[in-house]
Design brief:
513 residues; alpha+beta; Methylamine Dehydrogenase, Chain H; 5-stranded mixed sheet; 4 helices; 32 strands; 36% strand; globular; cytoplasm; repeat; coiled coil; WD40_rpt; WD repeat
């Protein structure tokens, strides 16, 4: 049943989540919209269950700030990238499984699944973009033409292209079949911070620290829209699934909502205290999330996508705005760009959310092994201790504020939680260590296979070069023999003449003698 707020055309704050201890850097909704993932500078991944009064999970494992997060298309995995140079795959459940990729030689800035869920693409400060196999958990290939840090990389919906953006002020398109760069878009006044395909794969958008957002049509390779609606760097953006809208997050402390069909700004949201670092639409577009340096995660109900645009324009014409209006410049092929008339945008401040209650947070300990691992006994003890402490605090509060019945319900829930978190027994631990060892062996074999393939490629290149050299030398020798044959033919003719003269002269001298 839809609430009164949901039938309004304005976006509204639905829930807020508090649990991170430092700036939130990335968010993503699960495909079934039952969970919301967020990563933070505090090195933790939070999985927020969107059901009322559900527990949240804090996953501990990275040794530095998390920079990117994304659910797999099936929703059974969550990938995170980190400044600790690694990528982790998590199972967003109480089991606490995770796998680790030693991905790059510098900080990893982003991670994303392909739309079939078989591949991962990562971007790094080591100036490279790398593609990985999810199921084999191994490196596949690398894309190297950027000359500075790579901030973001994404697969196209059909998986045939990869888009990447970099501090070298460029956005590059890569063909995944031949690993070649097929296009390069430049012209930013600063580093390019984010890149994304629309849901149909016909356009890409990119943002920069120069507060601009550009959209290219990949069918014509033309810049079709150029927005400058923020007053500071744009840290990220997200396409609505319908491709009609786009939301952007900026260091000017605001979230902007753009109507891409009409090419104008329609909403400015004020909800965070400080820079907004990330935004993301849900898979259906019904909700979107935002995160900021204030360590908060906000979830908004979209609403505006359910109304006819012309009806919205009529209502907007009666709304007043304060401050300077942003502007938009359209780029038309073969026509000089001309600025739009400055449209009015609705300013919305987040109302205090009274429906959200800070959930109980269950901490999942750090896995030790490089391969897929489970919680060890020590981590289990630590989690139980923390959970027990939290439950104890809740019990004290329940004695003062709640009735005896609620207290008993909490004790039952705590007992169920302890049963769920039962530590593994010894035989299972031995089996797990065996699986971990086999996983390490498989990783080493993958490395050897990759090394052999590289050596084979180099040997093939050397053979090709040697073949070219031999052919070139054969051509030179052939030409030299041809030229020498001509000169030798002349000398042989002269010698034959001399011989003929000799046969005539010598008898003459002999007879005279």
């Amino acid at each position: 049943m839809r609430t009164m707020a949901s039938v309004m055309e304005d976006p509204v704050l639905e829930r807020h989540f508090k649990g991170h201890r430092d700036a939130v850097t990335c968010t993503d909704f699960s495909p079934n919209h039952k969970q919301l993932a967020s990563g933070s500078v505090d090195k933790t991944l939070m999985i927020w269950n969107l059901a009322p009064k559900a527990r949240a999970f804090r996953f501990i494992g990275h040794h530095d700030g998390i920079t990117g997060v994304q659910f797999s298309p099936s929703g059974n995995l969550v990938a995170t990238s980190s400044k600790d140079r690694t990528v982790r795959l998590w199972t967003p459940t109480m089991k606490g499984k995770s796998s680790i990729f030693k991905a790059h030689t510098a900080a990893v800035r982003s991670v994303a699944f392909s739309h079939d869920g078989h591949r991962l693409v990562t971007a790094s400060d080591d100036k490279s973009v790398k593609v990985w196999s999810v199921y084999r958990q191994c490196f596949v290939y690398s894309l190297n033409q950027h000359t500075n840090w790579v901030r973001c990389a994404r697969f196209s919906p059909d998986g045939r292209l990869v888009a990447s953006c970099s501090d070298d002020h460029s956005v590059r398109l890569w063909d995944t079949s031949n690993k070649h760069c097929v296009n390069c878009f430049s012209g930013y006044g600063g580093p390019a911070t984010w890149v994304e395909f629309n849901s149909s794969g016909t356009c890409i958008a990119s943002s920069g620290t120069d507060s601009t957002l550009k959209i290219w049509d990949l069918r014509t390779n033309k810049l079709i829209q150029h927005y400058q609606v923020h007053s500071a760097a744009i840290n990220g953006f997200s396409f609505h699934p319908s491709n009609k809208y786009l939301i952007s997050a900026s260091s000017d402390n605001t979230v902007k909502i753009l109507d891409l069909l009409e090419g104008r700004l329609i909403y400015t949201l004020h909800g965070h205290k400080g820079a907004v670092t990330t935004v993301a639409f849900s898979r259906t577009g019904e909700f979107f999330s935002s995160g900021g340096v204030d360590a908060q995660v906000l979830m908004w109900r979209t609403n505006f996508d359910t109304k006819n645009y012309h009806e919205l324009l009529q209502r907007q014409s009666r709304w007043s705005t304060s401050g300077s209006s942003p502007y938009l410049t359209d780029i038309h092929p073969k026509i000089r760009p001309r600025p739009h008339q400055r449209p009015s945008a609705t300013q919305i401040s987040a109302v205090t959310d009274t429906r959200s209650v800070d959930p109980t947070v269950v901490e999942m300990g750090q896995p030790v092994h490089r391969a897929t691992s489970r919680l060890e006994d020590s981590n289990w003890d630590r989690s139980v201790h923390r959970t027990g402490k939290t439950a104890g605090n809740q019990t004290v509060s329940s004695k003062t504020d709640r009735g005896r019945r609620e207290e008993e319900e909490e004790e039952e829930e705590e007992e169920e939680r302890r049963k769920e978190m039962k530590p593994p027994d010894a035989p299972y631990a031995q089996q797990f260590h065996l699986e971990s060892t086999l996983g390490l062996i498989c990783q080493q074999l993958d490395i050897l296979t990759q090394t052999v393939s590289v050596l084979e490629e180099r040997l093939t290149l050397t053979e090709d070069k040697l073949k070219d050299c031999l052919q070139h030398q054969a051509t030179i020798l052939k030409d030299m023999r041809g030229s020498q044959g001509g000169s030798q033919g002349g000398s042989q003719e002269g010698s034959q003449r001399s011989k003929s003269l000799g046969t005539t002269v010598f008898p003459f001298h002999y007879n005279c003698g």
